[in-house]
Amino acid sequence: MSFKIFAIFYFIKRILKNFSNTMCEFKIIKKNDGSQILEDIVVLSYTDDNQLLFRDVMGAGDTLPSALILDVNTLNQTCTVFEHDLVKPFMELMMRFESGKITSSDIELFQEMVEKIKKEI
């Protein structure tokens, strides 16, 4: 009886060990058009200048200059991103706001960008 219990625990331990050693490698899907733009990505982060950074299993990197992470799904190993020219300026505006360094000219500059896009609609 004790051998069976030992065998069961050993089996569970092996499964959990193998599961914990499994690394998620994401496919990056661009929400704008549904295209897959990258694969085998293990690191998703933002650079100091608010560009979205991707690193693959070999350490090679790629960036999107003005994009947001919309969804990270570990079950199907996908990450959905949205790219738009306003994303980076908006993030920079929010970072300045959060740090207490925002000025009225920062807000006016962002408003001008929004107005320019509004005229193009």
Structural class: alpha+beta
Beta content: 25-35%
The averaged pLDDT comes out at 88
Distance N to C terminus: 74 Å
How would you characterize the overall build of this protein?
The chain has two domains: 24-83; 85-121, no CATH class. Helices cover 40% and strands 32% of the residues. It is an alpha+beta fold. The longest helix has 19 residues, at 2-20.
Write the layout of secondary structure elements.
Layout lengths: L1 H19 L5 E5 L4 E12 L5 E5 L4 E4 L2 E7 L4 E6 L3 H13 L4 H17 L1
Parallel strand pairs: 1-6
Antiparallel strand pairs: 1-2, 2-3, 3-4, 5-6
Short description:
40% of the residues lie in helices and 32% in strands.
Keywords:
121 residues, alpha+beta, 2 domains, 6-stranded mixed beta sheet, 3 helices, 6 strands, 32% strand, elongated
